[in-house]
Amino acid sequence: MGMSLFEKFLALRFKNGELLPIEHPHIPSYHDLLGIERQKETLRLNTLQFVKGYPANDVLLWGDRGTGKSSLVKSMLGLFSEEGLRLVQVFKMDIEHLSELYRLLRKSPFKFILFFDDISFEPKDELVRLLKSLMDGDLEERPSNILIYATSNRRHLMPERLEEEKFPEESYIERVSLVERFGIRLGFFAFGKEQFLNIVRHYAQKRGLKIDGDKLERLALDWSMSNGFSGRSAYQFVKDLEGKLKLGLEF
To answer: Strand 18-22 and strand 111-116: pairing?
Structure first.
């Protein structure tokens, strides 16, 4: 079952101890992700090492919303699926079943990225200890054909120091001990005006929008007043603009 499933599907979900195929995976274009060149190249090289069978690290992508963290992880399928890479989305609630997932994937010739998207924990969450153990330290050796890529808005996957903490040093150690399991930690930060406009121009050109450059910039900046300067906001603006232009609206 495993071989035919992984040959047929590029992406799957792991839910309640079962692998479920994703028939229509969202695979963003690696080359369309602008303003994060350093992060892109670091993740690409790490993933290339992995699919070639060379040593590679688990990766934590953390930072501001809408800056391309999740899209970058998913874009790895577009680059490496033909070399045997598969993406398995794992939800926080299924961390307790990870050992079963290891069993399902261990003997496969494919390479698997376990994708934890937008994950975070509250202090004293028992799943933190379990994930730490399953990543590095459990009695069972982790399969060599598995890496973990996780995205989060939190640098340490947990809230920063709370005022009422009785033993702040212990809390800090608990926060960083999970993060340190990730050999590569990539920060993503809010875009500025020019980065935002460059992304807008890129998507407008890619979609073939016929609109004056100055007008495009003005409309994009109006949009950003409510939606910010993120890459996600730029993409949403161009989609909205394309729809309005197809309706025949004038600006």
So the answer is: unpaired
